[in-house]
Amino acid sequence: MENYIVEMLNITKKFPGIIANDNITLRLKKGEIHALLGENGAGKSTLMSVLFGLYQPEGGEIKKNGKIVNISNPNDANALGIGMVHQHFKLVEIFTVLENIILGVEPNKMGFLQQKEAREKVMDLSEKYGLKIDPDALIENITVGMQQRVEILKMLYRDNEILIFDEPTAVLTPQEIKELLHIMKEFANEGKSILFITHKLNEIMEVADQCTVLRKGKYIGTVDVKNTTKEELSKMMVGRDISFKVDKKEPEVGDVVLSVKNLTVPSKTHKNNAVKDVSFDVRAGEVVCLAGIEGNGQSEFVNALTGLEKPSSGVINLCGKDITKSSIRQRSIDGMSHIPEDRHKHGLVLDYKLEENLVLQRYWQPEFQNSGFIKFNEVRKYAERLIDEYDIRSGKGSETITRSMSGGNQQKAIIAREIDKEHELLIAVQPTRGLDVGAIEYVHKQLIARRDAGKAVFLVSLELEEVMNVSDRILVIYEGEIVGELDPKTTTVQELGLYMSGAKRDGIKENKDGE
Asked: Structural domain boundaries of the chain?
């Protein structure tokens, strides 16, 4: 008989209107990386939340080293050596990095905090695993990649031996993903056991030993990763064959829709400008992608385009109209749709119902209001159409509180709202972040359908595969400047990487041997 460090046997978890986990069994061996794969809303995060004590199941039992255990809250999980890095980080923004790591297990003598001792342990762990942090930085001032390091150090500080990673790479750059996967392998080599929720099949193939697949709350099967393929895993996940290639015809390019001239945007974190004298056009009927390593001015540039930040100089024209100083609502009325980078901060009102979020950009239009009074029946009818068309899954349909939905389904709601409203320009920032392969395929088709309908699409993505597959033109941003314009049909991922890292610029010849 196999020895398992954790066994989740016949787990059933219900919410109003939905069975999130329907009689699921999952077994984890010591020193193993076990991936949990499934569509958005398949029940993966719910199952891990049961193991971490955030939810209590209606049926089934959990065993640790063969003995039945009761995990009624995260403190019980920590006492059993179980730690979790959540998809949406659980950090106190106004606390420092160090304060967040030791929160709840602060070392003290006679009631006095022994911060020196805690700092030494944290810095030793940081050094050992290459998780570089500034212990005195405030969480609100550090990048999401850095915040994730803080979450990992929180687990290590508590000496957890079973590590749960819930969508750990959804918000990371390609470089940070590589680093994280390397750290996960190190943990496994040391005998720690890892449960790893992801949608990214390449990551499963690279680091996982076993993979358990869930679909619509049910257990589909567990496979040995070295004996399977990406295609087989994706079919298990969505129940059909998935195309990893984006089918598109040659673009039929029309008039200029977005024109940016000499745009400069100040930085909020340092004295230099985040965006420096950027100019380009996006025409009807094409997808133009802004590619770059995170932190090179993309966020500030998009914020200036969409009205979230004021540029210090330059002009933005939309369909021939100067919108540089227009309000966010006016830009929307003038034909701009925006799928934002941060779905929680700029995309949704989490405590509103799903139907309310789906009309956020349109509730003032005659279709949805009369003399200032909302036509709730019309709102619901509209929401139900989008839920059906975009396969947005939730417990109570249009009445679901948005906060309770999975991250991927929250993303689908934003995409549905922005694509469905009248627009000439679609700005899509990381549109497939946190989505499963079936949903990614659907979003890519939608972006191409917008382009083929004569709309201008401005895509901002960190996913190189997405950049190469979806774009008609690629603009590379480095340190706030456009350093190259590339044709995805004639360039390579390697060349794109050189531009993104600043090793190559238009007009600068590189040594061929060095490429």
From this structure: 6-238, 243-335+423-515, 342-421
Could you give the 3-state DSSP secondary structure of residue 168?
A: coil
pTM, full prediction:
0.71
Of 245, 232, 240, give the one whose Cα is nearest residue 445: 245
Q: How many Å apart are CA 207 and CA 370, to the nearest integer?
A: 56
CA–CA dist 466, 470 (Å, integer): 6
Residues in CB range of 414: below 8 A, 6 or more apart: 339, 340, 343, 347, 348, 357
- For domain 243-335+423-515, which architecture applies? 3-Layer(aba) Sandwich (3.40)
Q: What angle do CA 67, 72, 73 make, to 5 degrees?
A: 120
Residue 323 near residue 290, CB atoms below 8 Å = no
Q: Quote the DSSP letter at residue 401.
A: B
Per DSSP, 482 falls in state: E
Measured CA to CA, the distance from residue 310 to residue 74 in angstroms comes to 43
Average pLDDT value for residue range 174-195: 87
**Do 151 and 86 contact (CB within 8 A), yes or no?**
yes
Looking at the predicted structure, is the pLDDT value of residue 512 above 50? no
| 410-463 residue pLDDT tens | 999 999 999 999 999 999 998 987 777 778 888 899 999 999 999 999 999 988
